[in-house]
Design brief:
By secondary structure, the chain is mainly alpha-helical. Helix content is about 50%, strand content about 0%. The protein has helices spanning about 1-20, 35-45, 65-75. The two termini are about 15 Å apart.
Length: about 80
Amino acid sequence: QDAFKHRCVSGFSRAADCLMRKGCRRAGMVVHGGTIMAVLSRFDPKQRGFYEWQPENGGGYAVTLDEEEWKRGRNV
C-alpha cells in the first residue's frame, strides 16, 4: 500500500508541476477512488487518514492549489 500511495502522490505532483509551469489555471483529473484517497490524505493539512477521503461512486473533490505554497512545502 505504501508503494501505491507513493506512485499516486508522485504522479499527482508531476502533473501539478507541469500544469503550473504551463500557466494552466484549471484542470480536471479522472482517477480511481484509491488514487484520490492517497493524494488527498498525503496533502491534507489536518492529516486525516486514507479512508476519510473515500469518494462516493462517480464522485470526487475540487482542489485548489496555491502555487507558492505548493512550491514551498509539498515534500514528496
